[in-house]
């Protein structure tokens, strides 16, 4: 009898609770579905976003960047920054072309390649013989050396930290940066000859969808936990190297990129 009553009570309790459970779980299921559709909310994508948040904020608030977005930029310093990016991307994309690393190949989307645009920018700022006129600044040489060190080391997959910091950062902020350059510098840049080609991602009509695809590929990488942690640390190194490049400029034309 006790068993029957107990079973009956349990049955009643289950019936009473079932609608409540259904109502409370439904939003959670919807949230889980939304999370699964947004690869930035889990995996290595989340680890990189969270793990670089602090240093990313520092980079965005350097004197050069803050001054530039206040309209204090100069053509010479903008050209020097673009020159630094040329040397950085030349080293990074050369590594992508020469390394036989499945991890890197999975994230090497041709739409992201920046070197062709940067070469057009160099011709715009320095003329047809630009290769004989430019040289990397001290901070840029340090940045390039780090790329080459990782590329020639035992863990070239750590370059994922560089791809994440550079490609996504420049895709995210490219339109804003180029727009501010035109507003601040006027006809000194962006006259159609290639002064802002670095920031033009013509092969990516929908940047939001593209970034989602890139993060999905990132999360699909089969990497050990220790390697993932090392990639996050390498991304932090990249941001610190960027900060050094910005600090070297400080919104002025000092330390010109011309030979």
TrEMBL record:
Heme b binds at residues 56, 164. GO terms for biological process: heme catabolic process; heme oxidation; response to oxidative stress. It comes from the Eukaryota. Residues 1-15 form the signal peptide. Keywords: Heme, Iron, Metal-binding, Signal. GO terms for molecular function: heme binding; heme oxygenase (decyclizing) activity; metal ion binding. InterPro entries: Haem_Oase, Haem_Oase-like, Haem_Oase-like_multi-hlx. This is Heme oxygenase.
């Amino acid at each position: 009898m006790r068993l029957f009553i107990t079973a009956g009570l349990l049955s009643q309790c289950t019936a009473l609770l079932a609608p409540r459970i259904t109502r409370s779980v439904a939003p959670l299921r919807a949230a889980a579905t939304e999370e699964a559709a947004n690869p930035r909310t889990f995996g290595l994508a989340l680890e990189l976003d969270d793990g670089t948040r602090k240093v990313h904020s520092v980079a965005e608030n350097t004197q050069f960047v803050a001054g530039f977005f206040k309209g204090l930029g100069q053509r010479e310093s903008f050209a020097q920054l673009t020159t630094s990016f040329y040397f950085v991307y030349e080293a990074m994309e050369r590594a992508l072309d020469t390394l036989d690393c499945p991890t890197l190949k999975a994230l090497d989307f041709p739409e992201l390649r920046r070197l062709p645009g940067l070469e057009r920018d160099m011709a715009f700022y320095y003329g047809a013989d630009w290769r004989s006129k430019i040289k990397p600044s001290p901070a840029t040489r340090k940045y390039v050396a780090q790329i080459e060190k990782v590329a020639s080391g035992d863990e070239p997959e750590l370059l994922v930290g560089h791809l994440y910091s550079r490609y996504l950062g420049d895709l995210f902020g490219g339109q804003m940066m180029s727009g501010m350059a035109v507003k601040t510098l006027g006809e000194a840049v962006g006259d159609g000859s290639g002064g802002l080609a670095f920031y033009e991602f013509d092969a990516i009509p929908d940047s939001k969808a593209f970034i989602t695809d890139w993060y999905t590929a990132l999360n699909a990488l089969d990497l050990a936990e220790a390697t993932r942690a090392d990639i996050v640390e390498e991304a932090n190194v990249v941001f610190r190297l960027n900060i050094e490049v910005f600090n070297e400029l400080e919104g002025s034309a000092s330390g010109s990129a011309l030979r």
